[in-house]
Amino acid sequence: MKDLRIRTFTAVAATLATMAFLLLAPTSVEAQSRPDAHAPIGVMGDHMHSGGEIMFSYRFMRMHMEGARDGTESLSNADVFEDYMVQPTRMPMDMHMIGFMLAPSDRVTFMLMGNILSNSMDHLTGMGGEFVTESGGFGDTKLSALIGLKDEGVNVHLNAGVSLPTGSIDERDVTPASSPNEVRLPYPMQIGSGTFDLEPGITIYDVTDGGAWGLQARGTVRLGENDNEYTLGNRFLATGWLQYRLFDQLSASVRVEAQRWGNIEGADPALNPGMIYTADPNLRAGTRIDVPLGFNWYFVDGPLYDHRLAVEINLPVYQDLDGPQLETDWVLTVGWQKAFEVF
Ligand SMILES: [Cu+2]
Fold this sequence. Notes:
The protein is mainly β. The protein has a single domain, classed as Beta Barrel (Lipocalin). It contains two helices and 17 strands. The chain has helices at residues 2-24, 77-81; strands at residues 53-71, 73-75, 86-102, 108-125, 130-138, 141-150, 155-164, 172-174, 182-184, 196-207, 211-223, 230-231, 235-247, 250-261, 265-266, 286-298, 307-341. The strands form three sheets. Strands 1-3-4-6-7-10-11-13-14-16-17 form an eleven-stranded antiparallel β-barrel. It has a two-stranded antiparallel ribbon with strand order 8-9. The longest helix is centred in the first third of the chain and has 23 residues, at 2-24. The protein starts with a helix and ends with a strand.
């Protein structure tokens, strides 16, 4: 684990040093029509638009979680069976995100994002049985205003967002213990937060001759308690990225992303935390550091002129979880974006 920490700090130090170098490089570029004018696809609310522009986007994200962890140590199935009769072993999560941006002026860009999720979770029982539960549907809707503070040289904008509780917190499925009836599924299988959430943030970025860099900090602050008597933990995320333009169409990126999220306050009375750890509101918090690697493609001509395609894979280098909790193995994001000038 010490190894990973050293590697992470080296990655962060190298990122900062290169950013400083890029910062000193002269800026004289046609900013919008370049692959690296947009951040790596895993960063949300990274860029603003000129007044009169709109943009449509679609992202597909798969997150793969497998195996349990407590603190920074992986646990075996046998370790978990010492305390629980049932355990999840694997959870792939798919998310389709549809985004719309609209800039009434150069100073403000509005952003709307809807998403559709589908989750499945594999389980093992102490008796050697296996079963799978599934959930899915329309998730929480995010609405935000990006407010430009500075657009000469290094760009700075605020991200003022809210998340609306359009996602279900009543997902149910059949388990061997409940069969033939459905029961409410544990916290990670629910689709929404059930609360109105504030999502404040700040983004700094610059496009230079050879590439681009950026920094972003974002939070999720839950307001109140949901209808099932709990509040998901608040979340804080910080990321920094560096992009190198390999040629006119293609840029490669490396990013460092650190996030920290809290435990659940309150508890869903329909869940039994003694049975399975995903039903325990005090086993949800964690810290994770990822090193996402990605590519952005910008079509400079042809029938797809001005369209953007991008891919990014997040590789966790450090995870410290209030466990047992399922650990994240990788997150893959692919996306498409297209802007139009409408007025
Ligand atoms: Cu956009």
